[in-house]
Design a protein that fits this description.
Number of strands: 7
Distance between the termini: 61 Å
Order of helices and strands: HEEHEEEEEHH
Oligomer: single chain
Radius of gyration: 41 Å
Largest sheet: 5 strands, antiparallel
Shape: rod-shaped
Helix content: 40-55%
Number of helices: 4
Length: 284
């Protein structure tokens, strides 16, 4: 059985002070959405930079592979590499200032045919084998790295084909990893700071806008608290720059006060007339 005598507290009985303010609700609602949207933009910016850096690094090796393909001479199953630019500085020297590129040519049986002179300046741990099968890149480009002593090199492998489209050899190109990792880290830190500043700025703007919206409402509250039966002349001042909803609410509130004042005036008139009419009978 339902107890109808139970004390049920309606929403109108809740102390307004216990309710969250409009500004707080707006910030807790808009804040996470703004922070999330800005975080997505920051991640997209960092991802685009990451993709460009890695794609450019891979393109540099692909260009060297294509140059080898254009210079080699292929007759049947044989590969001639004499016309390739083996004497260029970045193929002869291994110092960082010339941005060395290490080139190896293999036959179709993965036997080393020739390699650039600068490979001799590297430790013996430099691979004398084909690193095929590890160079496929997906949607997000990545650098395939091989460690040679204290150097980290990334590499690409390309196929050499004859006129019939048959694979007759491979070219393997390696290069020092560009110093973009530190750049990406610095860029990520900068994006993080920018995200914090933008999020804080947007939330501050939302808070200011909420205060601007609430200002007429606070004035209405003060007017409502000041209205008494003895003085019904107070009205809400609706600024010209107020938004439409606030202006409509202010006008409706002033119209309500006008009606209440009119009703009170008529009640006073009726009371005065009734008192006057009753004065003579009461005296008798």
């Amino acid at each position: 059985m339902i107890d109808l005598t139970r004390d049920v507290r309606s929403s109108s009985d809740v102390d307004p002070v216990d309710r969250p303010s409009f500004r707080r609700r707006l910030l807790t609602t808009v804040g996470p959405a703004v922070a999330g949207a800005l975080a997505v933009l920051v991640l997209l910016a960092w991802g685009a930079t990451y993709w460009i850096f890695h794609h450019n690094a891979i393109d540099a090796l692909d260009a060297e592979v294509n140059e080898m393909r254009a210079d080699v001479t292929i007759r049947g199953d044989s590969v001639g590499t004499e016309s390739y630019a083996w004497r260029e500085a970045h193929h002869r020297l291994a110092v960082e200032r010339v941005d060395p590129i290490f080139v190896q040519v293999f036959d179709r049986r993965n036997r080393l045919l020739r390699q650039s002179t600068n490979i001799g300046a590297l430790p013996d741990t430099y691979p004398q084998r084909l690193l095929a099968g590890q160079t496929q890149s997906g949607l997000v480009p990545s650098l395939h790295v091989v460690e040679v002593g204290d150097r980290s090199l990334y590499y690409r492998v390309g196929t050499l084909r004859n006129e019939a489209g048959q694979t007759v050899g491979y070219v393997q190109v390696a290069r020092g990893i560009p110093p973009h990792r530190a750049t990406l880290q610095a860029f990520a830190a900068g994006l993080g700071v920018l995200w914090l500043l933008l999020t804080g700025g947007v939330l501050a703007l939302v808070s200011w806008a909420a205060g601007r919206v609430l200002s007429p409402l606070r004035e209405m509250t003060e007017v409502a608290r000041s209205v008494t039966s003895a003085d019904l002349t107070a009205r809400v001042d609706v600024p010209a720059e107020s938004d439409r909803e606030t202006a409509v609410l202010g006008s409706a509130f002033n119209a309500l006060l006008d009606r209440i004042e009119s009703y009170v005036d008529r009640l006073r008139t009726f009371t005065s007339n009734a008192a006057h009419e009753l004065q003579t009978p009461l005296t008798v």
